[in-house]
């Protein structure tokens, strides 16, 4: 009894899911929707905590930080070429989003200790280069919304069905076409009667 029920359920699921995942659009739509959900989770988490992953490359280190509603991709290099990063590091902690007086802080990759070489900020995007101590910091911070919204719209476009064309034959002439034809026939009969 249990085996028969299981086979029926598996067959039903295969039929339903097989129909749903028919074609590349649905599969790709599900992948983009899952990606949007993952980035949305990161967006929410970044409002309360920061996560930082740093990987060494000789006298430089490349990393990504999730904080304050954005992802900061950065590269750190030492200016004196003597010290180097030796191991991959991960850190996480509580994000401070207000000043001592309670005013919300703008979340950027730079703190007050950074000496800014150049910087461009716009709508949550932050690009720039700074120095702190004997290291140079190159940053590119993008807001999560700039990833989540496009992925959601793409999945919407891929997953929702397109309006189907009608498979019916031509339904025939419309009312306006019928009235026009009747008027022409009536007019031609009237002209014919007058000419006789």
What's the gist of this structure?
The chain is an alpha+beta fold and 196 residues long. It has 4 helices and 7 strands, in the order ααβββββββαα. Helix 2 (24-46) packs antiparallel against helix 3.
How would you explain this protein's 3D organization?
This protein has 196 residues and is of the alpha+beta class. The chain contains 4 helices and 7 strands, in the order H-H-E-E-E-E-E-E-E-H-H. Strand 5 and strand 6 form a beta hairpin. The chain is elongated.
What are its keywords?
single chain, 196 residues, 4 helices
Order of helices and strands: HHEEEEEEEHH
Radius of gyration, CA atoms, in whole angstroms: 32 Å
The average pLDDT score comes to 77
Poorly predicted segments: none
Main sheet strand line-up:
4-1-2-3-7-6-5
- Assign a percent range to the helix content: 25-40%
Q: Strand content of the residues, in percent?
A: 25-35%
What is the overall silhouette?
Answer: elongated
Q: Please tally the β strands and state the result.
A: 7
Main β-sheet, in a few words? Answer: 7 strands, antiparallel
Question: What structural class do helix, strand and pairing data support?
Answer: alpha+beta
Q: Count the domains.
A: 2
Instruction: State the end-to-end CA separation.
Output: 90 Å
Number of helical segments with 4 or more residues: 4
